[in-house]
Every structure is written in C-alpha cells, then in structure tokens.
Amino acid sequence: MLVKDYMTRHPLMAAPDMSLVEAQRFMGQNNIRHLPVVGDGKRLLGLVTRQSLLIDPGRLGSLNVWEIAGVLSGLKVKDVMIKAPNVITVSQDITIEEAARVMVERRIGCLPVVQDDVLVGIITEVDLLAHLMEMMATRHPGIRVTVRMPDVRGELAKLVAAIAAQGWGILACGGVAAPKAAGKWDAVLKMRDVTREEVIAALSQVEGHEIIDIRDA
Amino acid sequence: MQQSHKPQTPILDVRDLAISYETRYGDVPAVRDVSFDIQRGEAHSIVGESGCGKSTVAFGIVNFLGRNGRIVNGQILFQGQDLVGRSQEELRQVRGDRIAMVYQDPMQALNPSMRIGDQMAEVLVVHRMMPRARALDYCVTMLKRVQMPDPENVIRRYPHQLSGGQQQRVVIGMALLNDPALLIMDEPTTALDVTVEATVLDLISTLQREFDTAIMYISHNLGVVARVSSKVAVMYAGEIVERAAVSDVYLSPYHPYTQGLMRCVPRLGQSKRESFLYPIRGRVPSPKNLPPGCIFEPRCDYARDLCRQRRPELRPIKLGHWGRCHFAEEIVQMGWQPPEDFVAQYTAERSVDAAARPLLKVTHAQTFYPVASQKLIGGKKQFVRAVDDVSIEVRKGETLGIVGESGCGKSTLVKTIVGMEKPTSGDFEFMGFDIAMPVSKRKLELIQELQMVFQNPDSTLNPSFSVGYQIGRPLRRFQTVPRGQVEGEVMRLLDMMKLGGRYYNRLPRQLSGGEKQRVGIARAIAGRPEVVLCDEPVSALDVSVQAAVLNLLLEIQKEIDTTMIFIAHDLSVVRFFCDNIAVMYLGQIAEIGPAEAIYAPPYHPYTEALLSAVPIPDPRAEQKHIRLEGAVPSALNPPSGCRFHTRCPRKIGKICETETPPWRDAGNGHRIFCHIPLAELRQMDPVVTVRPGNRLGRQHA
Predict the structure, then answer these.
(1) Does B97 contact chain A (CB < 8 Å)?
(2) What is the pLDDT of residues A132-174, one digit of tens each?
(3) What average pLDDT does range B536-556 have in this prediction?
(4) Are B484 and B561 members of one domain?
(5) Greater confidence, B314 or B126?
(6) Could B178 and A41 be called an inter-chain contact, meaning their C-beta atoms sit closer than 8 Å?
(7) Do B619 and B540 fall into the same domain?
(8) How many structural domains comprise chain B?
C-alpha cells in the first residue's frame, strides 16, 4: 500500500509553452483538475490547477478590452503555473497514509510523484478515497460490523478469535480510537457469506465488546 | 487492484487515420480509415499479413513515415493531444520521451561500436541530464528488471557479445528507461527462436503490469498476439477489418478474413486432424488497385452483390466487438465446415513400406567446420561441431521433419546430405550408393535424385532470368524430357504449382513471396527427384500463403510420391505434414520417432520445452510453463555428457554432466536420448491441453 501502487502513472501533462487557453480546454476535455508541467526528460517544472486558471482581476483592471484579449491569448502555462520549488511533491515509495497526511496538512488536492525531479505519476484525493474504498472492500458484498472494545492490548485478538472459531474469513478490517468515548477502540470488520444474525450471535459472546453498528454493505 | 476510478482518457486514440505514400504513379493509400484506442496499461495488438499497413500505422504515430509518406486524414490523440499536423519541435514537446519503439531486429537498434552500458546511459544523460555514474547504476537496475543475467557484466559488453534474446532485452530495457506511457513494439520477437521468444513474451507481460505502460504490439503471428495482449485489431489491405478482445476474435471471429486466417495458422491442437490448414484463396489486393466494394470481396466465399458495390463500415457487432462486414452475423450463423474432399485428400494414407530398405540412410554423420585457433603460435585447430553423430533413415515415400532452434545443425545436416558441405565422417548411403562426397564429385544422376528447396526464395532465383527458363534448366541439364518438350513440361509444372502458363515469361521480381517459393519448388521437382530436401520453405511466408504452399507440397508428394526431408524451427508446422520427426539439439538428435509420438509423452525434456514455447493462437489452450535459460551453447566446445544439461529443467544430477545419455526406446521407432528412465518420461503430463469448448467456426451453430 505504497504511493506507487495507487498513483496514476503516465498522467496527462503539458509543456511550459502551451497556451493557457489550450490548457484550459485540455483540462476540461479530459476532465482533470491538475496538470503537471514538464520540460525535457519529464522534469517537473510546475503545476497548473483549476485555481491557476483563474486570473487575478487586478491584473486586467487597468487594461482596455482589446488589451485584455491580447494578454489572455498571450498567456502561457508557464506564466500561471505554481513553479517547481513551490510544488509539494512526494516520492513513490512512501506509504499512502503519509501522502494523505501531506495533503491534509497542506490542504492540497494533488501531489505530483517524482523521482530525481522526474515526474513518474500523480496522486490525488480521489486516489486516496479510492484507497479507502478498497480497504473497506466496498465492492464486495458482506456484513459490515463496528465493534467497540476497551483500548487494551489483546482485545482485537479476542474478537478475531471469535470470528475464526466460526470459520469465517475477514474481507476487510480497520480500527480507530473511538471518536467520542475515551479509552475505547472501534474496530470495523467486513465478512462475507454470513448473515447478520449469525454475526450478532457470535460477536455478542465476546466479553466487554459491544456492537455499535451492523449493516449489509 | 481495481482501477476503475481512474480517469478513462486513452493513452492513444487513433481516429479515421489515413496514410498515403507518394510515388511516381500517384498516391498509394497504404492505410485507410483506421480507428482504435489503447487504454492506460493495456496491451493492444495489431495483426495482419505483410504489407497490410501495420507498421505504417506505427510509423505514422511516431512520425517516421519518411519523405514520401504523409497523413492525409484523421487524428492521432496521444494523452489527449493531437499529434497530426504539428511541427517537429511541437511534436517533440507533446510526445517528448513518452513514446518508445522497439523494432524487429535488435542488432539494428543497438550501436555495434558502443558498450551496452554507454548506450543505455546515454539516454539518461541526454534526456535527464543525469550524471554518468548514476545513470550507469540506473541501467544496471533496469537490466535486472528485464531479467538480464549478470547485468553488471553485461553493461561492459558490446552488442555482438550478447545473444539475440539478450539484445532484445537490452533494447526493451532501453525503451523503458524513460518510463514511456506508450511502447510500440513492431514484431519484437520475430527474429528470435521460439524458446527465446517465449521468455521475451513473458517479460513483456510482466513489464506491462509493472510499469503500467500501454503497449501497441504489431505482429503477424496470431499465437504471439494471443499470449501478450488483451485486445486485437486485425488489419487487411490497409484497413482494420475486425477489432475486439483476444478471446472474442480467436474463438468467435465475425469477419470472413479473420475466420480464414484462423484456419490457416498451424496450431498445436489436440489431434492431427485439427492441424490441417485451409488456405485463403487469392492474394491481398495492391493498395493502388483496390476493389470498389469490400476489400476482401474478391477472396471471400460469402461475397454477394452488395459486397461488390458498397464498402462496409467498421461497425459494432456486439459489445466491444467491431467488424467490417455487411453480413457478419449471417456468416457466423451459417457456420463453417471443412470441405470434405479437402480433408479426405490429405488424410489418405500414403503407402510406406516399413520393411523396405531405407532410401536414405545416414549413420554416425559428423560435419565439422574448422576454425582458426585463437593463439598466435601453435595451438590446436578447433572445430565447430555442427553435426555430431547423427543417424537417420528415410524410407521411400516418407517425410521426415527436422526441428530445433537455430544453430542446432538442421541445415548443416541437410546440406551435407545434398553435398553442399563435406562430411567429416560417417556413412551416407542413398539408394545403395555412397554419397559422402561434395556435390561436385557426384554423378549427374545422383544430383538429379537429390534436390533442395531453400528458405529464402529471393536469393535462390536468378533475378535476370525468366521463371520458365529457370524451371527448364534442370530439365535440360538432367535431360528429364527430350529437348523439344522442355517448354511443355515447364507449363505442366507451373500448372501443378497452381501458377499457370502466364507466369512462364515473368521475372522473379514480378512475383510475390509465395509465388517465388512455388517456382523454387517447381524447379526442385522438375528433375523428378527421389528425395526433396526442404530447408524451412515456408518460414519467410505469410500465414495464408504458408498454408497454401504446405498443402501444395503435400499434394505433390502424393502425386509423384517423393520422399521428403522437411526442416522447420517450430513444432506446429510439421505435425500434420510429417511421418517421422527428429528433434535436434546442438548437432545431435534428442528425440526421433513417428510424428504423433513426438507430441505426446514420453518427451525428451528439450522437446517438452520446445512444445511449451510455441505460441498457440487459441486462448483456450493451456500450455505448461517451461522456459529454457540462456542460448544454445557454442558448438565449438559443446557441453560434456548430455549436451542439453546446461539448460535442462529436468536435469537429474552429475550423470547428465559426465556421461553421454543412452537411447531410450519407447517402441515403434520412437527413441529418446536422455538419462531419465523411460518409465519416468512416460509420467510427464502433456504440454498442451485444450479446454473443451466450441470448435472454431462452428460455435454459433
């Protein structure tokens, strides 16, 4: 579960001399929100986002209509892009959660993935959401159950042992410190080929554990 | 991993592409109306016979059309941007190093005077301005990824010091250095041996997954395509006639051309009967002179008036399956049966008298080529042991197939028999005469009885004499017919070759490859020889032509009862054709026996590997995965003991390295040259198993 497994390789990219008008059309046509700008050898020079395409009205305020048209048509990608040193990038060998952390902290939606300054891929928030989806086995039908347990070592093992005793397999599994209950831990599990009732019957046997949510998913 | 959340912009989207070449006689529309797309990380093949425009499409994409070629219509969208009509500089920017190409001949793609490491590093130093030392490190990593043995050593070598398979690995590695989004491969394995081809194909599939590179794979070989790609477009005379997922095209082809193509590919099926070839009549129309309606109409068995009048469009026939035929659904409904007389004609038993004295008997034959010693003074003379202790027998009317990788001595053996090489030792007996001498010392009658058909018809026909004269020459020389009847006899031979009298005055350059090979065959059989030796007579030909030539050889054999020795590099071709097959490895016979016995256990481990390497144009076929490491060792210094031990996946131990293996007799003339006991060899599973399913051409009935 590293960036290299989830990024988009060979993303669409632009040359620095592409006109802004063309870049806008290109991004619209291909339905992308981020366009890396590369030079020779796919070295990352900058990044164009939807924001970069918005032109500061202050820049045009002093111009007349004819001049505006001229300035707009003359604008190149390199004039509006976020320049390379300011683009936040990651390496392809970091974990996907590390990439998520960078994106959350910097409040950005996309990270170009580079290796030796060369663009090898791009990872966006959509990729991370897709990753979350995959982790929870969203595409496979099954029973999704959330169990609240004491935040003590060995509790999850008890739960897993109870499931193993039934001979069931676990499709997906995740856990977080319970959001509003101190000292508790919430584990989310997904199992297939079982019924709701069977799950409730089996898991309510585990001492100290409480099913706080169960649903077909 | 599911990828469906990714934006679906195809890496390559070709729309209505038309490419013409300007010639003195006006524009030649080489490619017309070609549309296809390749998704990210997908392998898409384009198949077709030679001259149908596959490579032109590829060259159009990378703008290598040459001075006289130009794109007259259409769009080539690469990663969303159109490549057509841009200047070189703009193209360089758009395309950059995001498209790489691998060609057929690796030796031509590598600079012979530069070390591998320098050539590869140059790509990085120039494109990425990487320091040289780091670039070299990176190249070693890349060579490891393309499964090159000993990469640290390889980067210091020159291209000629690598085998063909290794060279192609270097070229593929070099193409991947810049991590291209699209890799165009133009017949990358055609120049390689089957066993090497199999490993390179495995590599391509691995790399495609690992690098997420879209691959456009051009090939004439339907078997190769089935192995590497998920989608395929079939091209015919400059147009795509059918496009769909591989399994759809192979199991339920809609277009009559695709159907025909499937029937004329030699395949390793279940039985001998399945390996019959049904050629497509006629020939590919020249792009200068296309029929007004459907381009396949002149050769189509189902052609109707509409086909002659209106050009069909490439239309969706069912989801994900496009075809260019007016009546595709109807044709598929009709089903297809092999013409009964056709099958009967080729299955009729030939009478081979097993008890008869062999017509040709070779015992303990050795043919060595002397090589100058490497040492300056003294030093022993060395020999390339091209044929080393080979014994074969051929009875009258029989066909012996000889199969093996290149460099295993097949051709040398045949050339020695025919007298073009001088044997070093051994007994060569033909019709009771000793023929262990070069052709120049043989009696004319003897020469007449032993004739040869060569691999490359271009280089065997004299370009300045007419076809008729060249076929007549052996007739005059051997005085087969009285002088006055030579012309009539030539006409008869031309008819027999299905060429007709109008070819009499043509020059070789006015003939297609298949026609030239027919002339070559006619010339070989003109003197009514007892034995015809065929050295890969169909390897240089397209599948549909190949089928016709093979069937022609069969007919001739039936008609004039010739004895034949037939060399092939691939086991799929010889199956239905030969009575006996010998598998050669490094100058020796590894296995010999009746044709059917070779294809079923017990196998020699080498035969097993050969069979598992042959690409099968049938997605239902399952093959054992056996890959031989490395190349055939040098015949200058062959391995001790069993010569195959260096590459043998079933090596049993020290004995293989030290002792010459015994001949294991599996009965009925089937003998295996191996240390493994026969009982164990019999336990092997068959290499090819075909899952039960519908048979080709009848699936919709």
Answers:
(1) yes
(2) 888 888 888 999 999 999 988 888 999 999 999 989 989 999 8
(3) 83
(4) yes
(5) B314
(6) yes
(7) no
(8) 4
Residue B436 makes CB contacts below 8 A (sequence gap 6+) with B423, B426, B427, B428
Least Cα separation, residue B575 to chain A (angstroms): 45
Which tokens go with B472? 């007549």
Choose the closest CB to A15 out of B11, B93, B179.
B93
**Residues 6 or more apart in contact with residue A120 via CB below 8 angstroms:** A7, A9, A92, A113, A114, B179
Q: What angle do CA A31, A35, A41 make, to 5 degrees?
A: 135
Select the residue from B12, B79, B98 to test the A interface by mutation, using most A Cβ atoms within 10 A.
Answer: B79
Closest residue on chain A to B10 (Cα): A30
B127–A32: do the CB atoms touch at under 8 Å?
A: no
Q: Is the CB of residue B9 less than 8 Å away from at least one CB of chain A?
A: yes
Q: What is the token pair recorded at B527? A: 């003197």
Domain hosting B135: range is 108-177
User: CATH number of the domain that B551 lies in?
Assistant: 3.40.50.300
Asked if residue B616 belongs to a domain, the reply is yes
* Inter-chain residue contact A43 with B214, CB threshold 8 Å: no
For residue B485, what are the contacts with CB-CB under 8 A and spacing of at least 6?
Answer: none
Whole-Å CA distances, B119 to B5, B110, B122, B204: 39, 8, 5, 21
Contact B7 A8 (CB under 8 A): yes
B219 within domain boundaries: no
Does residue B330 belong to the interface with chain A, where contact is any CB pair within 8 Å? no
In CATH terms, A3-132 corresponds, of 3.10.150.10, 3.40.1280.10, 3.30.300.30, 3.10.580.10, to 3.10.580.10
pLDDT at B380: 72
B67 inside domain = no
**B542 and B613 inside one domain:** no
Range list for CATH 3.30.70.260 in chain A: 137-216
**Residue B77, helix vs strand vs coil:** strand
| ipTM reported for the complex, 2 dp | 0.79
SS3 B501: helix
Based on the fold, state whether residues B159 and B272 are members of the same structural domain: no
The size of the A-B interface in CB pairs under 8 A is: 69
B518 and B640 belong to one structural domain = no
Chain A positions touching B81 (Cβ under 8 A) are: 26
Contacts of B96 in chain A (CB under 8 A): 15, 38, 40-42
pLDDT at B182: 93
**Whether pLDDT at B701 is above 60:** no
CATH match of A137-216 with 3.30.70.260: yes
Our CA-based measurement puts residue A41 at a distance from the nearest CA of chain B, in whole angstroms, of 5
Exposed/middle/buried for residue A56 (C-beta within 10 Å: 0-12, 13-18, 19+): exposed
Residues from chain A contacting residue B38 (CB–CB below 8 Å):
none
Q: Which two tokens stand for residue B542?
A: 């397209």
Contacts of A130 in chain B (CB under 8 A): 2, 5
The reported pLDDT for the residue numbered B47 is: 93
B494 with B608, same domain: the answer is: no
A155: distance to nearest CA of chain B, Å?
A: 31
